[in-house]
Amino acid sequence: MEISVELTLTPLQDDFEPAIINFIKKLRASKLKVIENPLSTQVYGEYDKVMEVLQEEIKEAFEFIDKGLLYMKIVKSDRYDYEPPF
Which of 11, 16, 21, 78 is deepest in the core (most CB within 10 A)? Predict the structure, then answer.
């Protein structure tokens, strides 16, 4: 089963950028399809592989920060190639 996941990591601390940069770099290194934009990061792929990577990388990201939030949306389909019809 293919999924698309949108993630927004929000460290609740003044020095927030290193945690976000590290999180994104680790997702890139996973060999999954990853797209970043200023508001979120999207990850695409096979459910078990994506969730395995996310479980590990979310845990590491939370260990890297004192307090923080992670917003996550999951869509049951690979929307990597989606283009609006307008």
Answer: 11
Q: Is the pTM of this model over 0.85?
A: yes
Is residue 34 within 8 A of residue 27, CB to CB? The reply is: yes
- 10 Å Cβ neighbour count for 61? 22
Please, are residues 65 and 15 in contact by the beta-carbon 8 Å criterion?
no
Which residue pairs, CB below 8 angstroms and at least 24 apart, start in 79-83?
A: 79/4, 79/42, 79/44, 80/4, 80/33, 80/35, 80/42, 80/44
Please, which pLDDT band fits residue 59 given cuts at 50, 70 and 90? Answer: very high
Tokens of 53: 């990577």
Token duo for residue 6: 């949108």
Token pair listed for 1: 């089963």
